[in-house]
Amino acid sequence: MRNFKYLNVIKKALDEECPGVVSCADIVVLSGRDGVAMLGGPHFEVKTGRRDTKKHTTDKDADHALLAHDAGVHAFLDTMAKLNINTPQAVALIGSHTVGRVHCVHLVSRLYPTVDATLNSSYAEYLKMRCPSPHPDPKAVKYARNDPGTPMKFDNNYYRNVMHMKGLLKLDNALYLDSRTKPYVQKMAEDNNYFFEQFVEAMSILTEHYVLTGDEGEIRKHCQWVN
């Protein structure tokens, strides 16, 4: 995971009030939950009491647990199924792409040397302005917003973008082109409440996956390091 500096600010404030009680794992889940709500998304309850792993992990470990940026629908649904997340719930989770950004290093394969046929042509030209080189510096902060229309609002505009072939990642547009997921993309584009409902159900499952409790872990003093 990245941006641990924010987690450690929260961790420091919590430990000043109740030292050694709240884990970094709980902070991650609660921060994600509250971030969604602060951007206009649904507020939902989550369980607490997680423990932090005693194993030191790296960025590579986190990347290994995530889908590749160029993954297709089959790999996506298969990964979600292993977490007991069904198809509409999975499509709702991807709706979190309504906020955030994608770095150019993960976009250029859809733009150069030829534009991905599933990309909206005018949108592709916009992306080329955001990512003008086929070989971007991986350390440079060059990116495109997931949803240029409402970039800081957690809403269903992502699905409307996808229906116009304006998804940033390969998977985004593929969700509308695949018969297994297309009906849910359409329904969530039409019904924001349905999107929120399925998103909350999926998050309830995801936030309780592979949780350490009791003596299985520890309460870290610093979120980047084991005690």
TrEMBL record:
Instruction: List the Gene Ontology MF annotations in alphabetical order.
Output: heme binding; lactoperoxidase activity; metal ion binding
> What are the alphabetically sorted keywords of the record?
Calcium, Disulfide bond, Heme, Iron, Metal-binding, Oxidoreductase, Peroxidase, Signal
Q: Report the InterPro entries cross-referenced here.
A: Haem_peroxidase, Haem_peroxidase_sf, Peroxidase_pln
- Provide the cofactor note recorded for this chain's UniProt entry: Binds 2 calcium ions per subunit. Binds 1 heme b (iron(II)-protoporphyrin IX) group per subunit.
Which parts of the sequence bind Ca(2+)? 98, 147, 150, 155
Recorded catalytic activity of this chain's protein: 2 a phenolic donor + H2O2 = 2 a phenolic radical donor + 2 H2O
Entry-linked SUPFAM superfamilies = Heme-dependent peroxidases
Q: Which PANTHER family match?
A: PEROXIDASE, PTHR31517
Q: What is this protein called?
A: peroxidase
